[in-house]
Give the backbone structure.
Amino acid sequence: MARIVDKISLDRLRDRELRVSFLCPYCKSTRITLAATQTTDDWNGIDCPKCQAHILLDSVSVVVIKDGTSPERT
């Protein structure tokens, strides 16, 4: 059985409602949520409301592994 491996870049995820949530890497106490539209292409991003660090989504890739055969349709 063949497997299909597809690596999906940030550019392809931009209109797929990708969101990443984590604690601020600088102060480690404020939850930050970034969307795929917040990239270095536009120098967007957000500032941490506590420590004012500017945080942006630089790169993301998602790897999808799928069996090569299609499921049967009824």
DSSP finds one helix and six strands in the chain. The mean pLDDT is 79.
